[in-house]
């Protein structure tokens, strides 16, 4: 008899039916993107976490002679775990830049086509369908589809919010007590929790976990026999503060259950190159990952080019990293200053490509529906930023804004926000946000674009942000 039902299995239907938390509107900006010359009325994307500040430097390095030699073996099938030569360079690189206690072992590195593939594969091999993993909210929202589409594994949210309880030094602060509470709640609901996922430096908060908290989290996971997946994809995108990688800790309570992710998308400003890695000491986990790695492999020539790139620590230390940090810090300051002039508070950030900003006063009601309304109004005014619910934030009204773009675009973004919020205020009969001029006015683009600033100037930029108490709640 003819089957008139779906062509898909129930798994296929689940995958096809996944729309993302924001549904169909999510990729509006893709259909009508702002282009200065060809589509100036298009939607300005300050929502996608891409670093557009360093193309000149990366391009210069990637096009040096010798980078693209194509050895015959690169056209053959290769080790699914990643080329040995590439894994050796990754191990050396992570030993150096993550300040590992001991030299890392190339055999413990698995290479895939991006950290999303790593997250999807890891959750699929560590958890069974319907198992859960603890993850503090807000968090990088793609962790959900990464773990759900393949493995049908689900998040158990550790809900953080902006209210600060006794002993807490910042909003959205993670504590082991909150992990314990979420664990208890999961067991009441009959969810078997298999892992803890942490993102450090954090997306979307832009902050860094202190080493003592990391250790406490690892001890907590060990007490419950949980795997820890720690995503350090923003490890080198730190512009204000000190980052401690899990690699740098003197002791791991459960090395076989600790899996550390890093990739090229953010720290080397190349999300199009699609390369991510995981470092895991467990041979069993690597064996399982390698079975999936053959579906998530990364082209040999790409691995070769990246080997040359990370081998060159002289270039990384003296050219790329200083310029990248300087540009991130400048762009962050421009965006934060602009937001402050619209009276939009911003959480203090130390790393990443974005800030986490408080738009609660612009919501008609403190609900996620009102957050979506505001988001659509901003899209209507041609500026796309990411609403908190894309990160499973428990409190409506927070948005993530990406600053790693040209000065012109950031300034245009501020103008469009002002326009949109002004229209809202006008409708509500409230004060219209205005950009304050005078001493506080935004730096001129040409000053900001220059790479010639001294560390004193940089410090001034950072201090300005501090002094204005933008981040103080
Ligand atoms: C925390 C985090 N992990 C992973 C990814 C995805 O990385 P990739 O481009 O390597 O797949 C992102 C991208 O935004 C991210 O923010």
TrEMBL record:
Gene3D superfamilies: Aspartate Aminotransferase, domain 1 (3.90.1150.10), Type I PLP-dependent aspartate aminotransferase-like (Major domain) (3.40.640.10). Residues 435-457 are annotated as: Disordered. One of its GO terms (biological process) is amino acid metabolic process. CDD domains: AAT_like. Pfam families: Aminotran_1_2 (PF00155). This is 1-aminocyclopropane-1-carboxylate synthase-like protein 1. GO terms for molecular function: pyridoxal phosphate binding; transaminase activity. SUPFAM superfamilies: PLP-dependent transferases (SSF53383). Residues 441-455 have a biased composition (Acidic residues). PANTHER family: AMINOTRANSFERASE CLASS I_CLASSII DOMAIN-CONTAINING PROTEIN, BIFUNCTIONAL ASPARTATE AMINOTRANSFERASE AND GLUTAMATE/ASPARTATE-PREPHENATE AMINOTRANSFERASE-RELATED. Belongs to the class-I pyridoxal-phosphate-dependent aminotransferase family. Residues 70-415 form the Aminotransferase class I/classII large domain. Keywords: Pyridoxal phosphate. PROSITE patterns: AA_TRANSFER_CLASS_1.
